Amino acid sequence: YLFRFYIFILGLNSIKKMSKNEEIVCLFDVDGTLTESRKKISDEMHKFMLQLTKKVVVGLVGGSDLEKIKEQMGGERCMTDFDYVFAENGLVAYKGGELIYVQSFLKHYGEEKSQEIINFCLEYMSKLTLPCKRGTFIEYRNGLINVCPVGRSCSQEERTQFNKYDQEHLIRKKFAEAVEEKFSAYDLQCTIGGEISFDVFPIGWDKRCCLQHLDMTKIKEIHFFGDKVHKGGNDHEIYTDERVIGHQVANPNDTMEQLRCLFF
């Protein structure tokens, strides 16, 4: 009987280890946190994240549009690999692969104000002299405008070149400050993410938007992992939110290491 009782206890412990804790949510920035900048998720990281989904609720929170998130996270499979996928800071939200929410920058500001913002950005960029300029300087998304001084069609080498130049000359920081000052009456906010661009959106439409889609009555802990957590970075607001336990990471390997310590 003692032996049977011992086996029963071992079984309970095994079930406990295997069962998913729905009271804990882990949210992840994509670029620089789960993947190297603008690169695809590694096989090692993908397998690791699938193991994590068996333990806690997992959501992706990217500043990019859905197609770019899919491109980096292994394609269409990411929509069902993870419990939540929040594109554009959560302004486009999916749960279990189903669309549950969409917010629109255009509807919020209207065509006239939207064009005014875009025209100012294009004029500002026309006066910039950079190591190089390519194409696609403005990318209009559902919930925000992405502004890229070097142009999103730049090569990986040109991307790295601009990022190094930006770190020295603060091109994006000064540009973002100019946009916020010019349109202070519009309650605009700019955040810097990735290596080459920054996002423009109404104040409050940052990554905290994703939190509204979580059932707070059932959740005890929300963890967020991101690399751009400094003020002005696109992970800052959610990282410092009082509802969230923030974790700053340096790269995907650091993300895995921190997760191992917490959940494995």
Key words describing this protein structure:
four-stranded antiparallel sheet, globular, Hypothetical Protein, Haloacid Dehalogenase-like Hydrolase, Chain: A, domain 2, 264 residues, disordered N terminus, 39% helix, Rossmann fold
In short:
Belongs to the eukaryotic PMM family. By secondary structure, the protein is of the alpha/beta class.
Distance between the termini: 32 Å
Order of H and E elements: HEHEHHEEEHEEHHEEEHEH
Q: In terms of per-residue confidence, which ranges show pLDDT below 50 for 5 or more consecutive residues?
A: 1-16
Report the CATH architecture of the largest domain: 3-Layer(aba) Sandwich
Subunit structure: Homodimer.
Protein name: Phosphomannomutase
Active site: 29 (nucleophile), 31 (proton donor/acceptor)
Family: Belongs to the eukaryotic PMM family.
